[in-house]
Amino acid sequence: MTKTKRKGQPEFPRKCNIGDLVNLDGYTGVLYRVDSYTENREVYSEETYMYVEYLLINVDNENEWDVGYDEDITLVAPASEAAKYLRNRKARERRRGRGKQTVDSLLDEYNDKMALFQLFGDAKYERAAKRAMAKLSKITKEAD
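^ thats the sequence. predicted structure below, dont judge the formating
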């Protein structure tokens, strides 16, 4: 096996390069990094088929890998922008997590105040529950 390309050998068309971030059809929400690729050539008496097979590593769990082909993958970020993309992705996930915590705490507050209102009948608990629901409505409208 030789590592150099022979003269006159046709170039394999490639959709992605090593280090690129990609999505793989059928794996929604999973982001992969192209770890390597194999250029395949199948020669028959009448035809020749050329295709590229990519080894993909899950960026969230490096122990998980998959194989993809050009028709199965979508480029998310080239290798030169991968680090920046991943930093921004983590920041978005942190913000989303904080938003979920806020919604959860407002729902807890609403339920607690309504339980106190039903138990004691004090209007201050009902007002506090309505304030929590108003905040919750505002947050969910902003998310849309």
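Residues 85-143 form one domain.
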